[in-house]
Write a structure and sequence with these properties.
6-stranded parallel beta sheet, Rossmann fold, 208 residues, binds magnesium ion
């Protein structure tokens, strides 16, 4: 039984805005190396400069990204059902808080790169389980990237992948819209909870 749902931020809660290929080029990250692993291997001014480029891009995206359709509605419905929610992002803390505050999102737990080794390592997911008092089998992670899949697998947590048009997904459970997550997780709506699909009603019209 699902008692907790974890979410990635960029591309899952918000529409994908960061051009990771371009950003990796600006920071000089070799192919096949994670961007933070590359930055952590730098020293002195080179590391500071690379961190500044990454944080500026994350902040720009957090300040301008739109909410993904259905995101606020899903988080609110889960909370009303008594299901614990966590935001788990590789972003830095300021960018994470900016997104949460811009959209008034109400997660039980917020975890970012200052909190534990980053996805694809399982540490942030394991930390969420501990903080929320959940067993791996009681949680599900909804994400949109291979790092989310690997972090979930490493923590023994079920993973559901949000598709983006034109992007080849990994081998995983797939949804094409966050409104489909509810049914995918086997959470049956009460009649009064059914909310029309569409961004205009996002987060509105909910019955506690
Ligand atoms: Mg993502």
């Amino acid at each position: 039984m699902i008692r907790g749902v974890f979410f990635d931020m960029d591309g899952t809660i918000t529409e994908p805005l960061i051009d990771w290929r371009a950003l990796r080029g600006r920071v000089g990250v070799p192919e096949g190396v994670a961007i933070m692993a590359h930055i952590e291997g730098l020293e002195g001014e080179a590391r500071q400069a690379a961190e500044a480029v990454l944080e500026a891009e994350e902040t720009r995206a957090a300040a301008s990204a739109a909410l993904n359709p259905g995101a606020a509605r899903l988080v609110t419905r889960l909370r009303h059902r008594g299901i614990r929610t966590a935001l788990i992002t590789n972003n830095h803390r300021q960018a994470m808080h900016l997104v949460v505050q811009r959209f008034g999102l109400d997660f039980d737990l917020l975890l970012c790169r200052e909190d534990a080794p980053l996805k694809p390592a399982p540490d942030l997911v394991l930390l969420a389980l501990t903080r929320l008092g959940l067993l791996p089998a009681e949680a599900c992670f909804i994400g949109d990237g291979t790092y989310d899949l690997l972090a979930s697998q490493g923590a023994g947590v079920r993973y559901v992948h949000l598709l983006h048009p034109g992007v080849t997904p990994p081998a995983a459970e797939l949804i094409s819209h966050l409104d489909d997550a509810w049914e995918r997780l086997g959470l049956e709506p009460r009649a009064a909870e059914q909310v029309p699909r569409g961004s205009e009603s996002d987060g509105q019209g909910l019955v506690p």
